[in-house]
Amino acid sequence: MDDQAVRSTLEFRACYSYDAAVEGYLPDLVIFPVAESQVILLARYAHRRGIPLVPRGAGSGCSGGGVCAQGGILVSFERMDRILSLDPGLMVGLAEPGVITAHFQREAERQDLFYPPDPSSAEICTLGGNVAHGAGGLRGRKYGTTRDYILGLEAVTAEGQPVRTGFFSPGETRDLTGLLVGSEGTLAMITKIALRLMPRPESFCTLLLVFRQADQAVQMAHAILRVGLIPAAMEFMDQRAVDCVRAHGKAILPPGNGHILLVEFSGRHQEVLHGAEKVEGLRRGSGALLVQKARVSRDRQKVWSVRRALSPAMAHAAKRKVSQDVCVPPGALSHLLRDIEAVGQKHGLQVITFGHLGDGNLHVNVMADGSRKQMRQARAAAEDLFRAVLALGGTLSGEHGIGLVKARYISWELSAETMAAQRKVKAAFDPAGVLNPGKILSTSKSSVLSEMEGKTP
Ligand SMILES: Cc1cc2nc3c(=O)[nH]c(=O)nc-3n(C[C@H](O)[C@H](O)[C@H](O)COP(=O)(O)OP(=O)(O)OC[C@H]3O[C@@H](n4cnc5c(N)ncnc54)[C@H](O)[C@@H]3O)c2cc1C
After folding, report:
1. In whole angstroms, what is the distance from residue 205 CA to residue 299 CA?
2. Atom of ligand 1 nearest to the CA of 77
3. CATH no. for residue 32?
4. What is the CA(235)–ligand 1 centre distance, in A?
5. How far away, in angstroms, is 153 Cα from ligand 1 center?
6. The CATH number of the domain where 303 resides is what?
7. CATH of the domain at 388
8. pLDDT of residue 172
9. Which amino acid residue places its CA nearest to atom 35 of ligand 1?
10. How far is the CA of 400 from the centre of ligand 1 (A)?
11. Quick one: average pLDDT of 63-73?
């Protein structure tokens, strides 16, 4: 390893002690491998000594997955950042885990290819982190999520065994790939990824609609799907989210007060035009104002800038926020919105909601001033939200993972038998329990509630 590969100074360790959800987890050492062989040696060394190892991409995760909850070595994959190949014939890309997602998307586009998974954090997160979290994003309804684009993986187990799953050359099968996708760095460290690509869509059209009531936006999304349209994106921002962006002053907002639904079509030219026309037709009588319609890239970027401005705007709006990516069957969205409103009122806190309506995936952000009292209320509000989501047949996490932050609550969703089966899988990959300990199924008492009281973006 070169002299950039191992860092032990407090400054370096501090830089890797947080992610987008939690802070204050100092690793004992940070290591930056550049090749799988180094990851293998490192895993064997750590396994023999029982030292925790935590794989990490860009640290943009929202569940505390990429921090050392129990000390040990943080393995940052940021130097394994090469796109190894993009094959327009096979429509397959090969990449190392540290490649930034948006960089991969742009390189694919240069070859007229398309990598659809599109987390809103694409400019900062890595493909490895996306695979480990099974990342979703804006285009899930039409194109699926990261899971649907992973053909094969190379990975290193906690004991230092290299494993190869799925497609790297024609004829190989997908076997263990599905198990590793979404395993949040608890089963193996991913060192190489084979990704399925698509031809680049011919055309795009983005529509921005404003509604007086949140439920009108949900009804519009249902109507769009009922007439057989499959938009690439149906992104919702409630009025508080819109007001928050307006107060921050960094995006040009459409005229009219209300809740926003962004609908985007992609595909063949005629298909896209047809989708946009149908939505304009459905709009009449739906209570919506059609505020913007954008076809060319520059105009579409302007329309999307409202959504992109939201995360930084929320970071300015309150000292702390407790943020949850809950998900319910799309038919239960109206009910969930009512429950969210009730939770906010019960606890006297502002709640900002936005998300991917096509998937039933809502990001619910309880804003707080950082005082102990409000953080306690925010935590109680999150717990009420979880109860409501589970009662609606939903799940605690649509895309951000369980990590450290929701480990305490996983038993609310999974039966004891299911958890026992999952623990057996974990033990098969990591018998000594050194890989990313304290996460997902952990029974450790490390205070998860204090994580929720940590910094959230
Ligand atoms: C503003 C903002 C918007 C976001 N929008 C979305 C969104 O739309 N959709 C969405 O799904 N997520 C979103 N996220 C969450 C986050 O960006 C994703 O979860 C992303 O996949 C994390 O990637 P990362 O490289 O930052 O991973 P990290 O945060 O570094 O790690 C995440 C998890 O992956 C594991 N991991 C990382 N690399 C490896 C590896 N090589 N091998 C094994 N395990 C590994 C870590 O141990 C950890 O458990 C958003 C976050 C922010 C801050």
Report:
1. 10
2. 41
3. 3.30.465.10
4. 20
5. 17
6. 3.30.70.2190
7. 3.30.70.2740
8. 57
9. 185
10. 7
11. 97
